[in-house]
Specification:
6 helices; globular; two-stranded antiparallel ribbon; mainly alpha; single chain
């Protein structure tokens, strides 16, 4: 959601050179966070069945009962159901594809951050 929000604001704003770098930094940071979360889920999926963390309560229940900070902490620690691969495409699970696209977005953010040319040449290609 962070990547989408940063991209939407950047597209609506039409930034100059400094703005392009700021949005590049924000895109790199949000996509990097997404890459970290996808990597964590890939790690959980790679664990042997006996080493997968125990299942916890559902997200719906936690949102009703716990404060948001604790919900996020619990979600990032992972539960046993995060290790279940329910879908694959070309050999990659959902977090695998997420990681691929987050790597592309991090690279795009870094290109924006370190771009040296004029803004119009960036947009025109």
């Amino acid at each position: 959601m962070g990547v989408g929000l940063v991209s939407l604001v950047a597209a609506l704003h039409g930034p100059g050179q400094l703005g392009l770098r700021v949005y590049g930094l924000l895109l790199t940071a949000t996509a990097g966070a997404g890459l970290g979360m996808a990597g964590r889920q890939l790690w959980l999926q790679s664990l042997p069945a006996d080493q997968v963390p125990a299942c916890g309560p559902s997200v719906e229940y936690m949102l009703e009962v716990l404060p948001m900070a604790e919900v996020l902490t619990t979600a990032l620690k992972g539960t046993g159901d995060c290790a279940t691969v329910v879908w694959r495409f070309l050999g990659l699970s959902i977090p695998g594809w997420s990681a691929v696209f987050f790597v592309v977005l991090v690279a795009l953010g870094l290109m924006m951050l370190f771009h040296r040319g004029r803004t119009k040449s960036w947009i025109a290609g």
